[in-house]
Amino acid sequence: MNDIDKLRQIVDGSSRIVFFGGAGVSTESGIPDFRSVDGLYNQHYDYPPEEILSHTFFMRRTEEFYRFYRDKMICLSAKPNKAHLKLAQWEREGKLLSVITQNIDGLHQAAGSKRVHELHGSVMRNYCMKCGRSYDVEYILNSSGVPTCNCGGIIKPDVVLYEEPLNDETVTQALRDIRSADTLIVAGTSLTVYPAASYIRYYSGNNMVLINRDATQYDHIADLVIHDKVGEVLDSI
Ligand code: ZN
């Protein structure tokens, strides 16, 4: 039996799949992984992306933050790929418990997924730091300089910046789902970025599937490892 057949067999026998996805799930929709920068950013910005996307930088150089953020982090032309669509389908069919994602692009919801734990937040949601009022992503894109609320407060994306903690409730729900999963599919992540590696330890079942283009240091603990594009693999199931 080849690996795709093995995965199909696992999926067929599952009713509580949890999918944990990293940047690799979104790159197949054309969204760049800002952690694997190729020098592109440095041509237009005086600081590395990790510094611009930090809490300190947001507070001190908000206008510069938004210049980078509008240019590089919001990518509304991106469409859900085969991975997003298959996961939404599994949820509708009652096979998938939830998606846990490190991506902030909202593509799982765009594909139709309802139960999505966004560990790093979402560019789709923004809020006034003063009164808490919500703003959509179009408001951010259509504003210039520092986007402000009617009350005069500064609007901040609901995105977890460097130096900021993850949302407690999101983490709690994600770990609860991993614990109760019958199958855990970890995909599109090298498992080197916090918190992915520490989370998979909460899974105690016998169907841990790792799908990633390159080998990871956790390949040996998975029950099935597939080194390929996530979208292609899921689409063939
Ligand atoms: Zn306000």
Topology:
Elements: H1 3-12, E1 17-21, H2 23-27, H3 49-52, H4 55-60, H5 62-73, H6 82-92, E2 96-101, H7 107-111, E3 116-118, E4 121-128, E5 134-136, H8 137-142, E6 155-159, H9 168-180, E7 183-187, H10 196-199, E8 208-211, E9 224-226, H11 230-235
Parallel strand pairs: 1-2, 1-7, 2-3, 7-8, 8-9
Antiparallel strand pairs: 4-5, 4-6
The structure holds zinc ion.
Describe this structure in words.
There is one protein chain. With 237 residues, the protein is α/β, with parallel strands linked by helices. It has a domain at 1-30 and 80-120 and 165-237: TPP-binding domain (Rossmann fold, 3-Layer(aba) Sandwich). The chain contains 11 helices and 9 strands. It has helices at 3-12, 23-27, 49-52, 55-60, 62-73, 82-92, 107-111, 137-142, 168-180, 196-199, 230-235; strands at residues 17-21, 96-101, 116-118, 121-128, 134-136, 155-159, 183-187, 208-211, 224-226. The strands form 2 sheets. The chain has a 6-stranded parallel sheet, with helices on both faces. It has a 3-stranded antiparallel sheet with strand order 5-4-6. 35% of the residues are buried. The mean pLDDT is 93. Bound molecules: zinc ion.
Compact summary:
The chain has 237 residues and is an alpha/beta fold. It has helices at residues 3-12, 23-27, 49-52, 55-60, 62-73, 82-92, 107-111, 137-142, 168-180, 196-199, 230-235; strands at residues 17-21, 96-101, 116-118, 121-128, 134-136, 155-159, 183-187, 208-211, 224-226.
